[in-house]
Amino acid sequence: MLNINETNGLMQANLAAAHMSEDVLHTISIQGHFQSFKGSTCISGPKDISAKCPGRINNILSNHQYIIFGSDIGNLLVMNLKTGQEWKVDNIGSIKHLSFFSDKEIILSTSNNTMIMDFKKNQRTILDSGRSVTHLKMNDSSYIISKVNEIVIIKLRKNLSPEKTRIPTGNITVSAMAFQDDVLAFSTFQNGLYLFRERQLININADAGFIDNHCSMMLIENKNSIWVATPSGINHVIFSHDGSDFKIEHITSKNGLPFDNIKGIFGNSHFMYAIGQKGISLFSPTTLRDEFKTPDIHITSFESGNKKFRQFDVAHRLKADEKITIRFSGMTCSFGNPILLKLVGWSHG
After folding, report:
1. Could you tell me which of 137, 119, 109 has the C-alpha nearest to residue 66?
2. Whole-prediction pTM
């Protein structure tokens, strides 16, 4: 794992918000400094945008063309990443959540209502009035809103009234939502993770093996892999192929993270960012999976006939009558033809 902090490129370790798109992580500090990272490299910023978007910027939304900032006092700043053109919208209510609706429209929830906005023309279509909406996500032709005591999935249908599916949530407080591969997931501050799949609501919490029930954010890597950020580290939920069973892995400071208090998690199957109060930890999910599966053995010798192999990188094809022997710590394995052997870190002499 690689830690990105104030000593190697991050303007401020304690970030206010972040968002990832196109393998680029966009961050905003509490003081309003904007930075973008690809891998561990800062590719943009730091740039102070606090004067352009007054208030505490607590929301970032980005795609291949635009990056959008929303503040707690109702200011919206849209920047075209390709042309540098900017649009500003003021006094729309404290912005809670943002999501793209189309190339030039966003769907957002504020302290006043939920709306679709054409940010270039500042045209607004109110979807839901009142202050009850706490979270918002858009996915294809549906948007999902979290209200007090329920989550509502609203499917937009051409020339028809929207189709609504309501999921009661009781008294829990939703901290984050994600919708991917027909799986709706939402994390909570009190009772772990909830999944709505195949019209069933599943709760995964400390009773099932979570390291902490206080979940600040979550990420759906795919329908069988979900990452959940907590103050005690990361819960990684891995489902079986048919979704009937799951296991939970813990990623903490005891096995690689530089800090445990994780506020956000972003990424994909290739690499992920864990964001905490002390900076950003960049790690590879593939490497973690390999580490979890690594047996407590190692190669002690590798030989074929009178050839002995030493550490290097070699591809070795056996001849018709040739056999090889590989000795591991605690076991010996012999192989005969046909085989193409690729050993990284070994060569023959």
Report:
1. 119
2. 0.69
